[in-house]
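Anyone able to model this chain together with 2-phosphoglyceric acid?
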Amino acid sequence: MKLTKSSCFPACPGPVVTIVLDGVGISPREDGDAVKAARTPNLDRYMASYPMTKLLAHGTAVGMPSDEDMGNSEVGHNAFGAGRVFAQGAKLVAESISSGHLWQGQAWHDVIATAKQGGTLHFLGLFSDGNVHSHIDHLKAMIEQAKQAGVAKVRLHILLDGRDVGETSALDYVDPFEAYLDGLRSTDFDVAIASGGGRMQITMDRYEADWSMVKRGWDIHVLGLGRQFASAHEAIETFRNETNVIDQDLPGFVIAKDGKPLGTIVDGDAVVFFNFRGDRAIEISRAFIEEQFSPFERGPLPKVTYAGMMQYDGDTKLPPRFLVEPPTIDRTLGEYLAKNGISQYAISETQKFGHVTYFWNGNRSGKFDEASETYVEIPSDVVPFEQRPWMKCAEITDALIAAVRSGKYQYLRVNYANGDMVGHTGNFEAAVTAMQGLDLQLARLIPVILEMNGTAIITADHGNADEMYELDKKGNVTRNAEGRTKAKTSHTLNPVPFVLISRENPGYQLRQDLPKAGLSNVAATILNLLGFDAPEAYDPSLIEAQ
Ligand SMILES: O=C(O)[C@@H](CO)OP(=O)(O)O
Ligand SMILES: [Mn+2]
Ligand SMILES: [Mn+2]
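re: yes, here you go
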């Protein structure tokens, strides 16, 4: 993995810093765009006075099945870190199902064999067609295949989305699904929803930001401990009336008959966690798998056959049993730098820490080289982010500035979570404040990088805060009879900025002949800035020598 010194690009005399503004895209309209509405004089100035282009950050440009698929942090950071586009989980699972490959694997065999010995087969995961963490079609295909294979009893534990799909769309999925289950049910096939709750309330925590979420999910799904309802529909309607929260924040519920939960998880059962994306799948998988487990009081661990849709962590091999082989993301930028003696520094707050480490390094949680890599996590607040839209951007900047000034690192990367995490709340004013907070930090950081003779790249992994109102099919903001907009909590299909900031006359310019450039072109650019040629098969660099 030896890199060759570039004959056209001298190494930047100072550090090269990639600044990922998570969830900050470039929208073609003004309406509902918190990025444009925010007063961000510094970002505006950088964009206007330094070389800038737009990068594709969604769809096939990041390995998703189609160009209707929005981008997300996993595919975005994978593309940044790998310098190439790999077919991603969404695509690999869909292909494995349509080719029938999934049903031939050992993991599926184990799951079916367990259920046929009398255990219940449980499917647990994010219940929508968002295609960021999961897709409801994958779930349906598995239920049908289980029925065909002669499984007698299936229970579903549904995590309501409202973050990758409309913020109050849960019933658009639940109601037709109940009708679908009615059609499947027969005397020898018993299938029902057994539990559920909002994805930001139960089960889908990530990066150990808040284990209590996972505990609440465990109690609901496994132990059947929680408020009881006759159906998911009833639970959703009741909680909406009582709490007025959007789907992702709905409390957990247990479906019960005569006071008895319909589907607790017990010895001899099989459990399939059907999300393909790993960040929010790791903690619940650990809870099912680890014999020694301290994050929360689980009670006796039920002896189940547990399978993930994919293997979520390539380093820790978690979980050991999985249905679809994850993409083999090899020869990442991080690995090249580590093996060529370039010191690296990665920083974010908890909510995005794994994005600049684990996703960036091709879904591996470990370092390539302890000695030359430093990873810093600033603990995130555990509050609704519309209440603290500045999040930890100031603290991250404090640490990053110190790292830049230290002169110890040749390559640094940071993820600022604000545009995305606040964008997901659907709160326009908070998203505007998030952007303004971020702008203040850029005004602190960029001058230090320049002072150190460094180069800064400002970019993003996908859009979010750039579209805070729901759009109709034509791309116009939807308004009801009173002219009110509906909040949009999901990512967008918009491109993202790429701004290259360095001292005068750096000796290179942005290429103009890459109209389809995307996130995967950034890695080669970074290598050029560090004075290396990009390795074989990396997507082309965005710069050329002058
Ligand atoms: O919060 C998340 O899990 C996703 C949206 O589902 O966002 P991101 O891809 O930005 O992490
Ligand atoms: Mn993101
Ligand atoms: Mn997001």
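Residues 22-23, 73, 76, 420, 461-462 surround manganese (II) ion (ligand 2) (CB under 6 Å).
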